[in-house]
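Summary of Year 1 activities. Much of the first year was spent building the evaluation harness for sequence design. The harness presents a backbone, in tokenized form, and records the residue chosen at every position. We chose the following record to illustrate the format because it has been used consistently in internal testing since the harness was completed.
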């Protein structure tokens, strides 16, 4: 966030790059999600660093530049706003999944069930039936909570790994909530 309360796109994308780097070691289960996120980050970075870069410095400047496409719901005329919305939804899933893995109780639902539930909350409403079914199958193959904690924080004790994931989830939640407010104020939540 800049001092005016707007999302700086270069910083938002840098945060996404870190999140993707964090998720990659979690294994093939995250491979599709991380490759999708990486592609979206790369597409938005092309706008941030492209010939129209002055219009892609923040969420507000991007929305102002793409307003004609947003108003007509023409996704070809608002590529940055659409990509931002898709990344925003994925951020919510990542935040919920990490939070649930960090705070899950012994004997409670396994990590796959918790991340599947997070998917159902954050992403499934926006996906077609076939994608939802494939995601459901992928979550069945999720590693257990202790393995996810080990992959996320190699060499750390379980309590330390849980605390680190909880902190990461808290940071993601803060970014998500701030971005959610800005997207809602600008009428972007129903763009896709």
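For this record, the design step produced the sequence shown next.
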């Amino acid at each position: 966030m800049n001092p005016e309360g707007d999302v700086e796109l270069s910083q938002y994308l840098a945060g996404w790059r870190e999140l993707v780097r964090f998720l990659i070691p979690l294994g093939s289960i995250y491979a599709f999600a991380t490759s999708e996120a990486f592609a979206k980050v790369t597409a938005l970075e092309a706008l941030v660093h492209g010939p129209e870069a002055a219009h892609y410095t923040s969420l507000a400047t991007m929305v102002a530049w793409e307003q004609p496409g947003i108003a007509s719901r023409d996704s070809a005329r608002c590529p940055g706003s659409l990509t931002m919305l898709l990344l925003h939804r994925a951020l919510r899933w990542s935040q919920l999944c990490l939070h649930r893995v960090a705070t899950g109780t012994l004997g409670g639902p396994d990590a796959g069930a918790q991340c599947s539930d997070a998917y159902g909350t954050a992403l499934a409403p926006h996906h077609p039936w076939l994608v939802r079914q494939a995601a459901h199958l992928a979550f069945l193959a999720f590693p257990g909570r202790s393995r996810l904690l080990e992959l996320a924080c190699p060499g750390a004790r379980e309590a330390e790994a849980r605390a680190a994931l909880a902190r990461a989830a808290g940071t993601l939640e803060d970014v998500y909530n701030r971005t959610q407010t800005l997207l809602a104020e600008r009428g972007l939540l129903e763009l896709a």
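The chain has one domain: 9-184. Quantitative recovery figures across the full test set are reported in Table 2.
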